[in-house]
Amino acid sequence: MEPNDPRHKAVPSSFCRAYCLDGLDDQKDNSSSLAGGAGYSVSNNQNLKNNTTLTNKRSSFGYPTCLFRVTSTSDGRLYALRRIDSAGCVSHKIIQNVMNMWMSKSRSDNVQHRTNNHRSCLFQHPGVVAWYKCFISQRAVFFVHQFHVGAVTLKERFFDPNYNMNNASTGSSNAADLRLPLDPGPGVPLPESLIWSCLTQLISAISAIHRSNLAVRTLQLNHILVTRDGGPSATSSPSSISEMNGNSASLFPKLRFRINCLGIVDILEYETRKSLEDLQMEDMRSLGCLILSMTTGTEVTINDITLRNTNSMSPSQQHQQQQRIMEMLNQYSNFVRQHYSRDLHSLMEALVNPTVVPPVIENVARSMTMRIMEEMDGAHSCMDGMNGALAGLYESGRALRLMLKLAFVNERPEFGIDKNWSESGDCYILKLFRDFGKCCGVLVTVVGICE
Question: Which of 133, 142, 183, 275 is in the most buried spot, having the most CB atoms within 10 Å?
Fold first, then answer.
């Protein structure tokens, strides 16, 4: 943002170098752009410069929200700062209670990580976006989360029809990093290998949260961040969903999925919170909705598969609404049964069926043992590739240092009359080694040095 941008006033003084991450393009979905998350690809720079007013749009949390990438003045690190206005129900006591709840539940699992990392977060897991703190300032509530460079929401990445068009117009390099070689496109069912990869990562995070007697409460498409860890690429494109599902998972780059916005709903709805059992049951329903959304290419939320406002409805109206829900679920179920494996269809049915209680996260994890092993194999392959690339860079650095040392020593004018540097001297071997590296091209190729 420009130095005279009035949005700087919306950021507390303990942070600097603020950059507004809210998507101001009217063509974008409001809930995706505002509720997106702690890491966001920065685009639409011209629109951000032209707009000098503070956005006052409501996010999926029901309050006016602004999202900034900021730099902390205490440690100099980047964070995602979410400002929520008009949250009069939030007090310092509520914030402290919720933060203590998340901190105490995860303390025993994260002692080692807290020792190695001076930035203490409330709940640490590879499948969640780290939440550091919450505070009240300027009559607004602020949430500080980890900032993931180049991350986009799952909704924007696979369900926003304007995603590829906007990235092409802005020339975003982050978009190119997240583009799949066999990209199904927005609003198209995702390949099964990608769905299983997403589920295994999310279930690992949900299991850790539920074991700590907590609930996620933000399992929606616009609250899951997607980043790329790297992986192989493919050159051919499939012609159908079945062909995509028949291909190996190695055709797709390794995508990382993280649950975002932890603790926000707990604070905003502290006075009206439900029991832990009900909240965890809603998490499992929401997980089933995620499977439905990814397999059908249509966004499905928990409100679409559950009865709402039953107190103000007559029995006939409730029956009609339940009939519509069952018809919709039957259509989705038939589609999933035709295009995906029996395991994925059975898991989806168990989670979204409104007539039965959804299974707990431990039972879901047990039923996915083989899929989890495949995901571990992919993760190990990705780590092997990264270690190989790192080893190559390390060897390149060694060769570069060696060439620079030889360049400082060889052919100095003051050594011209020294017999040790003559063709029969002891130091002449250094010249031969330097010339050998240049002639065979080994050192030149490794370090990229040319004469």
Answer: 142
The C-alpha atoms of residue 154 and residue 226 are separated, in whole angstroms, by 6
Instruction: Locate 131 and state its tokens.
Output: 């939440």
Cβ atoms within 10 Å, residue 136: 14
Q: Determine the Cα–Cα distance for residues 429 and 383; give it in Å rounded to an integer.
A: 40
Distance of CA 412 to the CA centre of its chain: 54
Q: Would you say 229 and 256 are in contact if contact means Cβ atoms under 8 Å apart?
A: yes
Which stretches of 107-240 are DSSP H helices?
111-116, 154-159, 163-170, 173-178, 192-211
Cα angle: 348, vertex 354, 359; to 5 degrees: 55
CA dist., res. 62 & res. 83, Å (int): 13
* Residue 68 parent element (H or E): strand 65-72
Task: Give residue-wise pLDDT tens across range 47-103.
Answer: 444 444 455 566 678 899 999 999 999 999 999 999 999 888 899 999 999 999 998
**Which stretches of the chain drop beneath a pLDDT of 50?**
24-37, 40-53, 108, 111-118, 168-173, 175-177, 179-182, 231-239, 247-251, 445-451
pTM of the shown model:
0.76
Q: What is the DSSP string of 313-364?
A: S-HHHHHHHHHHHHHHHHHHHHHHHHHS-HHHHHHHHHHH-TTSPPPPHHHH
**Burial of 272 by CB count in 10 Å (0-12 exposed, 13-18 middle, 19+ buried)?**
exposed
Beta pairing, strands 78-85 & 65-72: antiparallel
Identity of the residue numbered 121? C
Q: Which of 15, 134, 17, 122 is CA-nearest to residue 84?
A: 134
Torsion-angle region of 12 (φ positive above 0: left; ψ -120 to 50: alpha; else: beta):
beta
Contact 87/268 with Cβ under 8 angstroms?
A: yes
Residue 73 tokens read as: 């003045």
The secondary structure element, H or E, covering residue 143 is strand 140-146
Task: Compute the distance between CA of residue 165 and CA of residue 396 in angstroms, rounded to an integer.
Answer: 39
Rounded to whole angstroms, the maximal C-alpha distance in the chain is: 107
Closest residue by Cα to residue 430 from 406, 412, 401: 406
276-296 and 192-211 are packed helices; what angle lies between their axes, rounded to 10 degrees? 170
pLDDT per residue as tens digits for the range 311-348: 667 788 778 888 888 888 999 999 999 999 999 999 99
| Residue percentage of the chain with pLDDT more than 70 | 70
Residue 20 pairs in a beta bridge with 68
Question: What are 22-51's pLDDT values in tens digits?
Answer: 854 333 443 333 334 455 444 434 444 444
Locus of tokens 């079945």: 242
